[in-house]
Amino acid sequence: VLWLARELSTSPTWQQRMAVVVSHDRVFLDEVATDTLHVSGAARQLTQSRGNYSGWAKRRAQQQLTHEREMESKRRMIAELRAFKPLGSTPKQMKIFKSKEKMADKLEEEARELDEQAASLTEDAELPLSLKAGGEVSGFLVQVKGVSFGYPGSAAPLFSGVEMGIDARSRIVLLGENGNGKTTPVQAAAGQPRHTRSS
């Protein structure tokens, strides 16, 4: 991850290119991001913000706090207006009462609109996820020896003479430009598509 962060943030190759990064590694995001896109499931919105993850998180927390303060202020004002009881039923008192009711209705509508505008500040609900660890696996999970693969009609195989073993401790990254065949070895190891030759 450190190499990739350095490559994306300092290499001239990436200065004029766009990279979309999806990661849970906040340190990595802070290192490489120039813009942050937030997908809100609650609001069904995509919002864009300049800067890295930490800057976005700080601004979002401030926006949430400001929104909550505005909503609390409106709730207090509405409660005070609704608590007004006319002193008798004189025309003047009834006029004041109706005016306060109308103001409370207007504030409630403003609060609804404010909530709709700030829907992307609402945290998405946590989905329960429970992963059970399987038993310990020994030996190779996938092992290939002398595998070659080429598409029918191609002049040369995509790869040949591949030897590889994957065990339970393997952590593998496949790197390469688009269209260079990163998915093919995974598909071949799974039997889709069939490799053209193996020993």
UniProtKB/TrEMBL annotation:
Domain of life of the organism encoding this protein: Eukaryota
Range of residues in the leader sequence: none
Keywords (A to Z) from UniProt: Coiled coil, Repeat
SUPFAM superfamilies: P-loop containing nucleoside triphosphate hydrolases (SSF52540)
Coiled-coil parts of chain: 97-124
Region spans: Disordered: 177-199
Entry-linked Gene3D superfamilies: P-loop containing nucleotide triphosphate hydrolases (3.40.50.300)
A GO term for molecular function: ATP binding
Alphabetized PANTHER family for the sequence: ATP-BINDING CASSETTE SUB-FAMILY F MEMBER 1, ATP-BINDING TRANSPORT PROTEIN-RELATED
Name of the protein: ABC transporter domain-containing protein
Organism: Emiliania huxleyi (Coccolithophore)
Taxon lineage: Eukaryota, Haptista, Haptophyta, Prymnesiophyceae, Isochrysidales
